[in-house]
Inverse folding.
């Protein structure tokens, strides 16, 4: 699995007050005055680039995430485990995936009692896990928050996030480019769970991007991030809309059902854009024979990024491509569009729906 994890250089966007697109090298420099020293042009001296990948003090990292009940979540844990295996100085303790909030809280309590050096936590419920994450931080154990944010800034040393709003913007921008100035284009959206902020953010980004090119969402239905719900929602959409030019489906896992419904309908007058970046969707894109022409990445590498950051924090190191000598507070990963032209770049980190 480890050969399927791309270097951080390709994947990280450092979020400060504004989100800055920065390449983060696979190696990082140690957090010392020497490594932070500037060169004549104001940058850092990269002569020792990669030194952070050399074996250092062994650190024990506790990892907890929800149950692997769909492809994206399964890959989160698999990628984290594969990343830890790359380092001789990481001892990774993986708690059993669970959607039981009380059990996940207990798992973090165990990490605290065992005095691990760092915790990487993708909470089933960010609000519910905030108190125990704060407790870990107060015990001197840095917490790396992944994907679902805590309610308090005191609950995590660093947070790794996907860009839900950016997914919508990327999907809408791509659809605008494909439709050009086509008048009266009919654009449909198959969302995820409407009550979730992440779904609301994706839809808002999509709407904003379409509005920017003079288009709008004509038909919208919501699913539940499952195959069954995707098929049901897509069937309802196709019955309600006799003509469609483009469809954005928020999630490639539910997209399996979406494409089944489209196949059953026999309709092919539109193209489809997926979401999240599954391997099966990328393979369809690569074939060139599918209605799916693109998908928008929501990285399943976030757990792996969390492992790397936890190791650096626990070893008092920083990111080599930044002049800053501390790990950033927040890292927001980019939401690129995968098409037939660039699909080979993204296949190695894709998850299987």
């Amino acid at each position: 699995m480890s050969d399927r994890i791309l270097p951080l250089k390709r994947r990280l966007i450092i979020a400060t007050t504004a989100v800055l697109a920065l390449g983060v090298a696979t190696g990082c420099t140690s957090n010392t005055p020497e490594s932070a020293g500037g060169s004549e042009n104001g940058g850092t001296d990269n002569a020792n680039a990669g030194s952070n990948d050399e074996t250092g003090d062994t650190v024990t990292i506790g990892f907890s995430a929800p149950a692997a009940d769909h492809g994206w979540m399964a890959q989160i844990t698999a990628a984290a485990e594969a990343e830890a295996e790359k380092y001789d100085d990481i001892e990774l303790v993986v708690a059993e995936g669970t959607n039981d909030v009380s059990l996940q809280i207990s798992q973090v309590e165990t990490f605290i009692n065992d005095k691990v050096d760092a915790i990487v936590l993708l909470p089933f419920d960010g609000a519910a896990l905030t108190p125990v994450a704060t407790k870990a931080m107060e015990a001197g154990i840095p917490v790396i928050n992944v994907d679902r944010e805590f309610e308090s800034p005191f609950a995590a040393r660093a947070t790794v996030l996907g860009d839900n709003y950016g997914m919508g913007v990327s999907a809408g921008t791509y659809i605008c480019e494909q439709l050009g100035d086509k008048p009266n284009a009919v654009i449909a959206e198959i969302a995820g769970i409407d009550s979730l902020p992440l779904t609301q953010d994706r839809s808002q980004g999509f709407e904003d991007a379409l509005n920017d090119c003079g288009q709008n969402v004509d038909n919208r239905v919501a699913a539940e991030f499952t195959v069954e719900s995707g098929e049901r929602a897509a069937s309802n959409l196709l019955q309600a809309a006799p003509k469609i030019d483009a469809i954005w489906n928020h999630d490639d896992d539910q997209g399996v059902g979406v494409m089944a419904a489209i196949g059953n309908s026999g309709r092919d007058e539109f193209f489809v854009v997926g979401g999240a970046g599954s391997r099966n969707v990328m393979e369809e894109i690569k074939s060139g024979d599918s209605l799916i022409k693109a998908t928008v990445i929501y990285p399943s590498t976030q757990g792996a990024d969390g492992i790397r950051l936890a190791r650096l924090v626990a070893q008092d190191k920083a990111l080599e491509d930044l002049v800053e000598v501390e790990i950033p507070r927040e890292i927001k990963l980019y939401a690129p569009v995968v098409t037939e032209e660039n699909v080979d770049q993204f296949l190695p980190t894709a998850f299987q729906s």
About this structure: Residues 1-49 have pLDDT under 50 and may be disordered. The first strand starts at residue 14 and ends at 15. DSSP finds eleven helices and 14 strands in the chain.
